[in-house]
Amino acid sequence: xxxxxxxxxxxxxxxxxxxxxxxxxxxxxxxxxxxxxxxxxxxxxxxxxxxxxxxxxxxxxxxxxxxxxxxxxxxxxxxxxxxxx
Length: 85
Hints:
Blueprint: H1 6-22, H2 45-59, H3 74-80
Helix pairs in contact: 1-2
């Protein structure tokens, strides 16, 4: 399991919950190993893009500034916001 800092993980969970609720869906419990697009989360690629924009706005960080960085799980995304981009 990928370690994650609580604040960014909580922010991701909060925003995913809002996205799911806006779609009339219920977000299952999240772990660092929860997969975004093929792991049972009620989001699609547009929702994921929205999440990334909100994270940039709320953290002031853009780990994708130099190009796409691979991630598939919530923990992997959280880790991108804790190491220098």
